[in-house]
Amino acid sequence: MRKCEYWLAGIWAIPGKKKIQLQAMFPDLEELRRLKPGQMSRIPFLTEREKEKLQKAQGVPERELERQMSECKEKNISLALWGDKAYPARLKEIYNPPYGLFYRGGLPEEGRPSIAIVGARGCSSYGKAVAESVGRHVAQAGMAVISGLAAGIDGFGHRGALQAGGQTYGVLGCGIDVCYPASHKKLYEALVEQGGVLSEYPPHTRPYAMLFPQRNRLISGLADVVLVVEAREKSGSLITADFALEQGKEVYAVPGRVSDPLSAGTNRLIRQGAGIFLSAEDFQKEMGLFRREGWPAMEKQKISLEKMERLVYSDVGFDAKNLDEIMDQTGLALGELLPILASLMEKGYVSEVYKNYYVRAEMTV
Questions:
Q1: Whole-model pTM?
Q2: Which helix (H) or strand (E) holds 312?
């Protein structure tokens, strides 16, 4: 890890595009590190606040920089810079690309199509089922899943991809060594093993609210298409959709009840021209438009259901249903029903969202 580049990448108050300009203006970044306050007038594109942040960063001792870099090495944190081969080519095409990406695990493969699955943190059981199912289906087809590791839809999109053995990447709105929310620690580590987590912010950066909207441009920038599963009228997911449209990406949305606040944002996207998500299979056919020659497809998992499993599965919907309802509608006794539900959950077709309440976890059988 190069010391001066690491130093510049860590000044998160300066936008990425301006850091790239600084690198071009000062090929020897040591000169920038030693620049006197009076010489800052040579940098016309920096605001006064950005110049103050740069001056403050100049005061970081060499020993402290070396300590920070050593800590990154111990935590298996890598840094991909604008000019590096590892830097994602997709991000070079967006308006304000990051100067550097701190990451654990890997970065999205250039030859593999990807989809961003985003939506509400406080999602419904229906939204959870859709996000998890789509994540699983597209991962089985060979696509990478990009999201923000947030609670709700993001997390379930990641989980679906993991269940299929696919690649999935979390873009953080905080330091790469900060898991937010903390409850997603196991999911964070699973992504490191089966994809990666990345951030343009240096280690130890706290999850400030102002960082997340800017993080969203990277989620859309790394994806070929964005799917919004559930979103309120004013939602961070709509910011991701706006970035996607600015970047020339396709946007799809899951329609919902007009009376449901969680569908207000997605229904508005559809009214404005977003693609309509109808089913996982139809969506995969649509994704054929984004296939590239030579990109790998994963072997589709074939799971067959027994007759009684199909009976129970057909009764479980996308709205949570309790055991008593399922027993009444299937005519099965409790002793017969519980093993069938356990089998369906093991196969990934049904989820228990809370005690004795079940929903579908797959879109199609």
A1: 0.80
A2: helix 307-315
